[in-house]
Design goal:
Oligomer: single chain
Helix content: 40-55%
Largest sheet: 4 strands, antiparallel
Strand content: 15-25%
Length: 354
Amino acid sequence: MLYIIIAVLIFGLLVATHELGHFAAAKALGVKVNEFSVGMGPALFKRQGEETLYSLRALPIGGFCAMEGEDDDSADPRSFGRASWWRKVIILCAGAFMNFVTGLIIIAILYAPAAGFRVEVYGGPIESYGTENCGLLAGDRFLSVDGHKVLVYGNARFYLDRAGETLDFVVERDGRRVVLENVHLPYQERVDENGNFTRLRGLSMAVTAEPTNFFGKLLYAWNTAIDFVRTVWISLGDLVTGAVGLRDLSGPVGIVDMMGEVGSQSPTLFDAAWNLGYLAALIAVNLAVMNLLPLPALDGGRVFFLLLNGLFYGLFRKKIDSRYEGYVHLVGLAALMCLMLMVTLSDVGKLFGR
């Protein structure tokens, strides 16, 4: 129960951090903010600033940044609706930017004590697979697999499992960059002990340790954050193609349950803190990517309409009626709420189905 409470607080803080990004950008660009709240529901604490009401609310499930003229027409010259288009774009993107930066900072803190990082190298062929003459040599460090750059440990095996039978490699060999093109590696699909499909290609993976310094840690933290972004895009692609279904998705209930389970199953308190921090960073980056998708009701959808409006005005000297944009966002919000309800019911079903 302790870890579930911690998970709820972490998730709520990540959403509140998103709203903090909108708030900071609006203040910096001269847009009036009527209220900034941490948490939702009944107010526990309120304080009126020079123009902004600051509040702390009872439910630790996010927060909000209420800007003047954000959802209606306002005559105030400092309202969001009367701000220039580039100011609106910056304010709308600032929430996702803050989530990404939060994730990056968490990762950098987690990696701070590290003396080095694990690196995937080729361990040699496996007998009876016919991979002895594939062009790889034992000790080759994987830099790219099937066109995907190897950013962090685990990438080489991950993209090897997803590739077809013919793929390209870029490796580092004796300090030189070597490109291997059109390598034919037939695979055999197996199910591992966790029930996951894996493609065995007769290549063994070895692990070596690479020492690092302060700047190396920062670079690896950056690579990890970028890898999180890439993972989200791959997951979205799998969802569109049908490789994963609704039951494979998780909403807030599923995420909190997973974080609570990870925390409780960690062997030590330090491991629990590290694992929860890693998941928090992944969720923060996930929120950043998802909020910038050009879908109605999301920040990315609003940015899309701003750009579309600019194009429409440039071609026809007219702007899209704000009412129609509002209708689109309303329908999009309803669709997102329905999806969230379905995912939540699926998460609850998984909990009771254990």
